[in-house]
Amino acid sequence: MTDPLPAYAVASAQGCRIRLSDGRELVDGMSSWWCAIHGYNVPALNEAAAAQLGRMAHVMFGGLTHAPAVELARRLIGLVPQGLDRVFFCDSGSVSVEVAIKMALQFWSAQGRPERTRLLSIRGGYHGDTFGAMSVCDPVNGMHERFTAVLPRHLFADRPKSRYGEPLAARDIESFARLIRAHEGELAAVILEPIVQGAGGMWFYSADYLREVAALCRRHDVLLIADEIATGFGRTGRLFACEHAGITPDILCLGKALTGGYLSLAATLATERVARGVSADGGVLMHGPTFMANPLACAVAARSIDLLITSPWQERVAAIEARLRAGLAPLAPHPDVADVRVLGAIGVVETREPVRVAELQRRFVDRGVWIRPFGRLVYLMPPYVICASELDQLTGAMVEVLSETR
Ligand SMILES: *Cc1c(COP(=O)(O)O)cnc(C)c1O
């Protein structure tokens, strides 16, 4: 508000490069926060947007429908874990979380269980910036601590310590198991980010944990909401992170990479059981945003999915993973580094102390890369189309900058 960190003016972006107004070019290490999986200025997506623009940019979605929404919904249903065949389109990730929470609340109230209003989540989670979403973010590190007093009180299980690729340590599930057992009668849903906790700490946890959570939700008849807004569309090496554990949630949130980073659009998917429960008393889902299923965004999203599915995305993400692992490994023994971890096209260096963002930012820009750290996390999640030399430029800059910053 009064003393902002420096911001760099961007003139254009193309492929994996961001061009600043002063002519400098930066290799993009962020995919504009998980979104730009195909890079920037993508001919197929430009064409999809232009073609749709020639037909209609927008039309209300109450009482009207259109091909871009229908086609996008069809594609999504074909891709996500089986059983999620109801789709609600909204404007952003946070709103899709609000919609998911409202679905869960209405599911129970419409079936005569209005007391089931609480949510159970995991510490270290991040689910967005609107009020319902804020209430399930990590209560301390979730960026929203300041608003705690006005948020509904939900329940938080300990963050699983077992890492991705490791079996689950038995005591890791204890906190979650205890909470769901003690509160099952008042719980509407469990909400979590499968496998990768994003903005709440960039932590990758054991797939066994997710499997156990899904089993406990079934046993105690609590709905499971998977927030795949960050992980969806291949980022973790699987199309959706739920696939690492072979689970199907009752409700699924998608956003971010949905439109390949072109426009703001999100989707909340649900099973038939959820849909029937929500409408059990004859009602409809009580949500209807103005830009619901915006045709322009839907048309670009459908094309982005086609582009992804017809590309060798698995090989690309696997190659990025291997190269991130090799490129970031030199930082592991550094005294200021607490941990280095890589999963799919995500590479994370966790420092022991919070980094000086503005200073690091400048050093990265001086080296021709765009990397935006926060807190104790310096991380990369490049577009899938990045080439080996660009990736080496990113990891090389990270090693240099973090090595010289003491
Ligand atoms: C970014 C994010 C959100 C919020 O999405 P917005 O589009 O920024 O509202 C919610 N959940 C997760 C896991 C995210 O990464």
How would you describe this structure to a colleague?
- This protein has about 400 residues and is α/β, with parallel strands linked by helices.
- The protein is built from twelve helices and 16 strands.
- It has two domains: about 10-35 and about 310-405, Aspartate Aminotransferase, domain 1 (Alpha-Beta Complex); about 45-310, Aspartate Aminotransferase, domain 2 (3-Layer(aba) Sandwich).
- The protein binds pyridoxal-5'-phosphate.
- Pyridoxal-5'-phosphate (PLP) binds near residues 198, 230 and 255.
Highlighted features:
single chain, 406 residues, alpha/beta, Aspartate Aminotransferase, domain 2, 2 domains, four-stranded mixed sheet, 12 helices, 18% strand, globular, binds pyridoxal-5'-phosphate
Query: Strand sequence of the main sheet, in spatial order?
Result: 4-12-11-10-7-5-6
Bound molecules: pyridoxal-5'-phosphate
CATH topology of the largest domain: Aspartate Aminotransferase, domain 2
Structural class: alpha/beta
| Rounded mean pLDDT score | 97
Question: What is the CATH class of the largest domain?
Answer: Alpha Beta
Elements, N to C (H/E): EEEHHHEHEHEHEEEHEEEHHHEEHEEH
Query: Percent of residues in helical segments?
Result: 25-40%
- Strand fraction equals 15-25%
Q: Number of helix segments?
A: 12
Name of the CATH homologous superfamily of the largest domain: Type I PLP-dependent aspartate aminotransferase-like (Major domain)
Total tally of structural domains: 2
Shape: globular
Cα(first) to Cα(last) distance is 29 Å
- Gyration radius (Cα, Å) is 21 Å
